[in-house]
Amino acid sequence: MKYSFIELNDLPNEILMIILKKLHNVEILYSLIDVNKRLNTIVHDPIFTSYLALMTSSSNCLFDRLTDTILDRFCLQILPKIHHKIEFFNLESSSMERILLLTNYPNLYGLGLYNLASETARDLFTG
Fold this sequence. Notes:
It contains 7 helices and 5 strands. The chain is α/β, with parallel strands linked by helices. A 3-stranded parallel β-sheet has the order 1-4-5.
């Protein structure tokens, strides 16, 4: 049996989209943005940029912040490039202020906040 080696760049865009849609948007953006022009065009598609969950979750439904390395890359490199495409965020409370104050999100219409202390929620929503 003869083995063949196929690189990601060898696949047609349609096949890449099918594969990438099965992954988490945050992982796609973190791993593939600015890798090359073709992948950059694909990962800037609204399928990957309109809904972002910038947190991790475990099998028992607990949510935690992204690692500092990942969060730094998002805040310094990724979010400034895609901020105008983001429509919905899911954020963990310890990183929400940094993310929300980073830039303007003109198309943001939804926000999910996780691990938010009741006192913090009261302060946020009562002025």
